[in-house]
Amino acid sequence: MHNRAFTVLSKNLRIIASNAKLSLSSGSSYSPVQKQQTAFHSSSNNNNSSSSPIGSPTRVQKLIASQSDPLLAKEIFDYASLQPNFRHNYSTYLILILKFGRSKHFSLLDDLLRRLKSESQPITPTLFSYLIKIYGEANLPDKALNTFYTMLQFNIKPLTKHLNRILQILVSHRNYLRPAFDLFKDAHKHDVFPDTKSYNILMRAFCLNGDISIAYTLFNKMFKRDVVPDIESYRILMQALCRKSQVNGAVDLLEDMLNKGFVPDSLTYTTLLNSLCRKKKLREAYKLLCRMKVKGCNPDIVHYNTVILGFCREGRAHDACKVIDDMQANGCLPNLVSYRTLVNGLCHLGMLDEATKYVEEMLSKGFSPHFAVIHALVKGLCNVGRIEEACRILTKSLEHREAPHKDTWMIIIPQICDADDSVLEEVLKIEIKGDTRIVDAGIGLEDYLIRKIRAKTRKF
């Protein structure tokens, strides 16, 4: 297929050469790479085009760029190279290199790089930015690392952004953490100086690898080398400390941030609040929640829900009620997670009146009660014999088109069967649809009624 296509193109190119013109279809268009490289068309190339039998390098560049098959593009490139008085421009090299890289023809890419170097073409750092990206997407950390030194061979000074991209690729592979660290330490020998992002990349990698001490060393060296840490620098260490359950150290870092004038972001506070709650330091978590607004970060629904969950998990749902009141006073409205967590916590403590109040508050605000909320409250009410209230809650759930779970039916149906006829009549008025899942409870209900009938029969 390639040979047939090349034969046609070769014939066309010969005809064009005899007429000293190269005809391109009007459909050919510049790629983003071509547009970026237009500035590199030198005057010498334009002079050469008049004596070249196949036209200017720019026209050949357009033809190569229009090819979807990289091997066919290479044949056109090679054919043009053989023509007298013809020299490809830098943009053509760049386009073909990118075609090889994206199609994973890396041996052809390496050959073209060597040829580019031998022809002493003017090179820009943009080429290597593309190469690093290509090697990263192809999962080739070795080639990404070698790109740094290839730039030096081309007399191109790597930029800090090149260093950071290479480091990011290397640390994404655990086996390349040491080579990444070595490159980081040696970069200054080539007048490439790591910035805050460079330190953050390595700090995060070492923290995820469990080497917090090395990350701390890097953090401290930032100050010695006049590199200013940012919020992310602190957060990386704080998250690592929290994962190690060293929440006191994370709190100390927060104080250091605040003393240095940093305003912690939402994620930083979420990390700390979650860690404090898991360590059962609920008083400290609540104090931090109240302190956030004063320090320039308004608590959001995630922060409040984290503390609500912490209180409920430790059997302190009554304190969680205060958090819900606080959040509404601060203009942050509770969501379904807030209510579900709180109602479950209140039911677990037997605080059914309070739980009922919050369920009704949910409904008044237009929330559709989650079946887990209904189940917890119905179960709690049935356990203490408050069947009528349980039925009322179930009725409201159905009115809001929320289908109770089959376990809820299994709890309430036996209670209804034991209740007086008036309660049963009221429940039977409920419109039961397919999505109420009562069919799932049917087998259990049948077994229950059979047992009840047999018990009555034995009495007689």
Report on the architecture of this protein:
With 460 residues, the chain is mainly alpha-helical. Among the domains are: 1-122, no CATH class; 367-460. The chain has 26 helices and no strands. The chain has helices at 2-19, 32-37, 43-51, 57-65, 70-81, 90-102, 106-118, 125-137, 141-153, 160-171, 177-186, 196-208, 212-224, 231-243, 247-259, 266-278, 282-292, 301-313, 317-329, 336-348, 352-364, 371-383, 387-399, 406-418, 421-428, 438-459. Helix 8 (125-137) runs parallel beside helix 10 (160-171), helix 17 runs antiparallel to helix 18 and helix 24 (406-418) runs parallel beside helix 26 (438-459). The longest helix has 22 residues, at 438-459. It is elongated and about 105 Å long.
Stretches where pLDDT falls below 50 for ≥5 residues?
A: 15-50
Q: Could you give a short account of the major beta sheet?
A: none
Structural class: mainly alpha
* CA radius of gyration: 35 Å
Average pLDDT for all residues: 82
Net shape: elongated
- Beta fraction: under 5%
The helicity comes to over 70%
**Distance between the ends:** 94 Å
How do the SSEs run, as a string of H and E? HHHHHHHHHHHHHHHHHHHHHHHHHH
What's the helix count? 26
- DSSP E strands, number: 0
